[in-house]
Amino acid sequence: MASEISQAVLLVGGEGTRLRPLTYRRPKALVPLLNEPLLSYEFRLLARYGIADVILAVGYRADSLRNSLGDGSRWGVRLTYVEDPQPLGTAGGIGNVGELLRGDFVAMNGDLVYDVDLGAVLEAHTDFGATVTYCLRRVADVSRYGLIRCDDDGRVQAFLEKRAVDETGRNTVNSGLYVMSPEVLDFIPVATTYSNELELFPGLLAAGRPLLGHVPAHQGYWADVGTLDSYLETSCDLLGGAVPWMTATIADDAVVDASARLVGPVHLGPGVHVGPDAVIGPDVTLGPNCTVGAGASICRSLLWEQVTVGAGANLQNVVIADNVTLPAHANHNGGVICP
Ligand code: GDD
Ligand code: MG
User: Is the Cβ atom of 90 under 6 angstroms away from ligand 1?
Assistant: First the structure.
C-alpha cells in the first residue's frame, strides 16, 4: 500500500564548518558529487517513494541554494524554502516550518547520500504508531554520530550524542533520517535555537512518547558528507557504483585526446578537454569545462567547474574548487585547492 506521507523537511541551514574552505564557495548542500549537488541525492530518494513536497529549512547562503536548486522539478520534487530568522538549530529549523506541515512527514539532515528502503521505514512508523521513527545504522566507529539505544522491540531507551564507544556493542546510530508526527511541534519552542539531538529527542523520551528505532533489513549505501575526508570518500564510492541510481558517465561532448588514458571509474562533465598523454583515474570526477594539459596525471580527485590543470601536473587525493588554474608540473597530494 502506498504511504500517505507526502512531505519532507530537509535541514540545510548549517554553515558546513568542517568542509571549509569549500563551503565558503558553495553551501554544503551544493557541493557536487558526480557533478550533481549533494542535496539532489536526497531529492531523488524522496521522489522514488512519492514524497514530492519538500520543504527546505535554510539559513546559511539561502540565496545560493534558491538560485541553484530552483523549484526542484529537475529531480521530481517541489521545493519550498523557509529561512531561519537566525540559526535555529536542528529542531528549531523544523519548528519554523510547522505551519506548512499537514500530517506525518519525513525529516532529514541535509548532508546525506542515502540508499534506503524508505517504504519499509514509513511502514514501521505507521505500524508502531510512533511519534518519531529513527532510521538507524550500525557503524564501526560511533564517535561522530548520535548513539540511539533501543530495547529488543525497537523502542528507544536513550539518546547518547557523540560518545566514544557503545558499551553494549550494538553501535546503532542516528542516520539523520526520521519520520515524525506533527505532535513534535508541541515540544519545540517558537523562535528559539533548539537541537533535535540534545533537546527535542530527550524531551520526547522524558515525556513518554513512543519513539521507534528502525534498522532497515537491507543496509544500502549511507554517507554523511560532513568532512573533507568523507566528501572525497563518498565521491569515490559513487564512482564505484555504490548507489545504483547514480552512475559515472562521460559527457557526449567531452573531448579526450586519442593518446590520453582514462582509467575507470571516471566521470567527465560537459565541455571537458583532456590533452595528449594525460592519465585520468581511477576515481576522478572532472566538472563541466575542466581542461587537463598534456601529460598530466590525476587520480582519486574531484575537480569542480572550469578548473585548468597545467601540462605535466600530478594530482592525487585533492578537491579543487571552481575556476582554479594550476601551473604546469604542479604537484599536489591531499587537501583542498581554492582560487
Ligand atoms: N535550518 C537549520 N538551522 N539547519 C541546520 C542548523 C540550523 O541552525 N544547524 C545545522 N543544520 C543542518 C545542517 O545543515 C545539516 O544538514 C544537519 O542540520 C545536521 O547537522 P550536522 O552538523 O551535519 O550534524 P552532524 O553530522 O554532526 O550530526 C548529525 O547527523 C548524524 C548523522 O549524519 C546528528 O543528527 C547525529 O546524531 C547523526 O548521527
Ligand atoms: Mg552531518
Answer: yes
Q: Which atom of ligand 1 is nearest to the CA of 174?
A: 39
Q: Which residue bears the cell 567547474? A: 305
pTM, full prediction: 0.96
Atom of ligand 1 nearest to the CA of 193: 8
pLDDT digits (tens, 9 = 90+) for 104-156: 999 999 999 999 999 999 999 999 999 999 999 999 999 999 999 999 999 99
Residue position matching grid coordinates 590543470: 309
Looking at residue 169, its pLDDT comes to 87
- CA angle in degrees (0–180, nearest 5) for 80-82-83: 145
